[in-house]
Amino acid sequence: MGRRIASELGMRLLILIAAFALASCSPQGTEDAQSPTTEAPVAAHGQLEEFQLPSSNIGCAYIPAGGTAVYRSPDGRAELQCDRVAPTYVRIIMSETGPARVQTDVSDAPCCAGETVAYGQSWSRGPFTCQSAEAGLTCSNSDGHALFLSRDRAESR
To answer: Does residue 97 form part of some domain?
Structure first.
């Protein structure tokens, strides 16, 4: 069990390092203020993609089906990992099917990076659609399960 946890932590750290390397090399795009959905390009197969809310307190990492060079979801399907920094660090992990899992004991805290999804806009990749709002972040997967993450709540719906 301890080796599995250490392995998962090592994988998350490698994902974080890869994300920072990609972010530092990627040009920042501009957002169309008229568009309700972000227009960032879809991640290439095998590439991690991240986004955050304007508060920089909530952010998500999208892992495509099949995983990346350094991380593969337990079921090999696409995965969305959303983190909240304050008031306590929490992570919600959602596969493309089934309910999300809330984790309150998170030892790696890499939040938040990537494009900023303005309040009132949505973000969509693969089987996931997320709505950014001042009240918090709501994301759903292809079979209708959802997560909600805000300063006050972290829940699977």
So the answer is: yes
